[in-house]
Structure formats: C-alpha cells, structure tokens
Amino acid sequence: MKSIPVLNMTRYALGLLAMILAMLFIYKFSTNVFILAASGYLFLICATDTLYSKIPNVFTVALILIGLITNIGISGLSGIFFSTAGLLVGLALLLIPFFLGGMGAGDVKALAALGALLGPAKTFQIFLYMGLIGGLLGLIFHLLATDTKKEFRHYSEVFKNIYLTMDFKSFKNPENRTTYRFPYASAIAFGFFAFTCWGDIL
C-alpha cells in the first residue's frame, strides 16, 4: 500500500470539503427547513465519519424525528406515510451494498434518515448521485492505495494465462492486497448537494 499519510490527507480533504459545502448550504438556504436540517446533519456525520469512521445513531435518530415532525406539520397524517416511505426507500437502496461489505450500517441509516426528511422520490435521486460520486471516489482511493503498475502487470499475466490455458480458476488477486475504505458520508453529502443544485438525474 502507498503511504498512509497521503490517503489520510485525501480522506480529511474530502471530509473538510463536504463540511464546508454543508455550511454554505446552511447559509444559502437558511429559510428552507429541509435543506437546513439535511445540511446540518451531513455536516455532523461527515465530521464524525472522517475523524472516527463512525456515524452516531443519535444524529440519525434526530434527523428521522425532525423529518417526521416536519412532514406531519406540513401534510398532516399523510406526512407519516411520506416520511416512512422515504425511510424505507433509503434503507432498501443500500441494503445490498451493505450485505456485500461495500459500506457500513451507519451509511445505510444515514440515507434512510435523509429519506424520512425528504421522501422517497428525492431519496432515490440522491442515491443515483451518490452512487456516481462514490464510485469515482472509490476509484481515486484505490489508485492511491495500490501500486497501479504492479497490479497491471499481475492482471496482464493472469489474463494471459487464462487465455492460453482456458483455466478460469487460475484467476486470483495480487497477494497481500490491501484496501482502504474512504468515509462514505462524504459521498452521501456530495450526492445531496448535487441533487439540490442540479435536480433529478432521471
């Protein structure tokens, strides 16, 4: 693995950028309770995820309650169904990546909490943005964390061997391969900010 300080600097830079954007959104949309609550929440979880690789449940539960109360206040009893549907959609969208080990439970609950605030349709759009952004960030961290030339040589030999022998079982990853997980709260935050600025992808 390449130098840990470089990876940590990148990690902190992303977290700091997400927190700065959250503060800008809080300032710019101070009269919009939905953007205000979401931005405040994202500021907090980006800070804790960047520094401690953890998203405290207390923040998530607080946003779910804010979302539920706000939507009931605006829409009455139908606000309960709106918030519940958003929460379930946010939860469902990240369950498969969670079970595959691609993200932590805190990340799943974070999108569910945003869903309780913003509803199912907006949550789905945020999911699309964060998937694109998260994939890009994952690629960046992978390139920073590995010896790219060494991996290229390894896979070239592996595929050459498979081509010559047709033995697909000979495929294997490089020995002593290590991974470095970046704080996914930043990807969730960037997804929310992108959706707020640019609107629906689909």
Write up this protein.
This protein is an all-alpha fold and 202 residues long. It has one domain. It is built from eight helices and no strands. The two termini are 38 Å apart. The mean pLDDT is 88.
| Low-confidence segments | none
Biggest sheet statistics:
none
Q: Would you list the SSEs in sequence order as H and E?
A: HHHHHHHH
Shape: globular
SS strand fraction:
under 5%
Produce a short descriptive summary.
The protein has 202 residues and is mainly alpha-helical. It has one domain (4-198).
Give the tags.
single chain; 202 residues; mainly alpha; 8 helices; 79% helix
Please outline the helices and strands.
Elements: H1 4-28, H2 33-52, H3 57-75, H4 78-99, H5 105-118, H6 120-145, H7 148-165, H8 184-198
